[in-house]
Amino acid sequence: MAASLLELNGVRKDYRIRKYGRVVKTYNALNNLSFKVEKGQIFGFLGPNGAGKTTTIKCITGILKCDEGTISIDGENIEYNHFENKNKIGFLPEQVGLYRSLTAIETLQFYGAFYSLSDSVIDKKGTKLLEILGLGNSSEKTVNEFSLGMRKRLALATALLHEPEILILDEPTSGLDPRGVKALRTLLLDLNKDGLTILLSSHILSEVQELCTDVGIINNGKMIRQESISKIVETVEKTAIKLSLRVNEFNNESEKLLQKKKGIEIIEKKDIGKHKTIILKLKEDLIPWVTDKLVANGINIFSIEPQNTTLEDVFLTETEDENEA
After folding, report:
1. Domain final position from 174, 202, 234
2. Taking residues 194-202, what's their average pLDDT?
3. Which of 38, 64, 257, 273 is the most exposed place for a label (fewest CB within 10 A)?
4. What backbone phi and psi angles, to 5 degrees, belong to 204?
C-alpha cells in the first residue's frame, strides 16, 4: 500500500460571526473531515459550492487554523516544524495575486526568498521552470504585460520553485482558454510522472475524470465518498446505467407506461428531426422490458445505445443523496 503524503483526521472548522465583540452566530464549514492523499496520486477534490473545499485548502496551506483535528504532511503534524512542513507544499490559488511591476524572473526571486533559496538557485531553477511553462522568452517582461494564462503559469512556477512534494491547485483552469487548459493538463501529467503528488480542486468534472487517479467528494463539510475514479464509476454502473433510445415517436401513453415501472427514470426527451431521442436511467436487466413494451405500443426503435457513466453522474448522485439524508 502506498504511503500517505497528506492526511486529515477529524478536522473541524467553524466561522464565527461577531457583533460588538460577541459571537452571535457560528457556521460550521468542516465537520469531522477525514481523508488521505497517497504519494503519487492526482487527487480530485470535489464538492458543490459551499461544501468546504476552499476552507479545507486554506487549512492545509496554513492560511486558516482548524478548530479540531489534525493535518499531517509526510506523517508530521503541520503545526509542528511549521516551516519545514510548509516547504513540502506548493499552492496555486484560484485568484492569482502577483506584483504587476515585477518581471517574471524578479517575481521568482521575490517568492523564492521566502524559502531561503539563494539567487543563483532561483535563477537556475526559475529559468528552467519558465522554459517548461512556455515563458522562457518573457522572463524580462513585467507581469502587467502578461495575459491571465501567462500569469497563472508564472504563479505555478512560484509554487514549484522550491520543489514541493505535493502541489495543491484550487480551480487551476478558471479563466483559461481551451489551449491554456490543454497545456496545463499536459504539464500536470508530466509533473506527476516525475513523482509530484497533486491535489486538484475543480468544478470541471470532465477535467477531473481525465486527469485524476482518485477522487474525494465533500459535502456539508464532510467526506462522503473517497475512492479511485474507476471504482466509483464501476459501482454506479452496477446500480444503474443510462440508455439512449432513438424512436419514431414517444407519446404520453408510452411515457406514463415507463414512469409506472419501478426502477426506470426518464432523464431527457428531445426531437432530432424525424426521430426522437429518449434517455433513460435504469437497471440493465430492465432493458428487454422497455423495448418489449414500447414495440407493443406501436413505437419503432431505430437504435439502442448504453451511455458511459461519467464523474458528473456520480457527483450529482452522491451529493443529492447526501442532501436528502
Report:
1. 234
2. 93
3. 273
4. -90, 95
State whether 191 and 292 are in the same domain: no
C-alpha cell recorded at residue 252: 404520453
**CATH number for position 49:** 3.40.50.300
The predicted structure's pLDDT at residue 323? 57
- In 47-163, beta strands by DSSP E: 68-73, 76-77, 89-92
Q: Which pLDDT value is given to residue 322?
A: 57
Q: How many Å apart are CA 295 and CA 304, to the nearest integer?
A: 13
pLDDT for 236-287, tens place per residue?
666 666 778 888 888 788 888 888 888 888 888 888 877 888 888 777 778 8
Q: Are 181 and 260 found together in one domain?
A: no
> Among the three residues 218, 234, 250, which one is the final residue of a domain in this structure?
234
End-to-end CA distance of the chain: 33
Helix (H) or strand (E) segment spanning residue 237: helix 229-239
Answering whether pTM is above 0.85, one says: no
Same domain, 258 and 196: no
Tell me which residue range forms the domain holding 155: 4-234
Domain count, the chain: 2
Model confidence at 193, pLDDT cuts 50, 70, 90, reads very high
pLDDT the model gives residue 290? 86
281 vs 294: which has the higher pLDDT: 294
CATH number at residue 265: 3.30.70.260
Place of cell 478558471: 174
Alpha-carbon distance values, 274 to 42, 63, 222, 248, 249 (Å) = 45, 58, 48, 7, 9
Cell of 105: 524572473
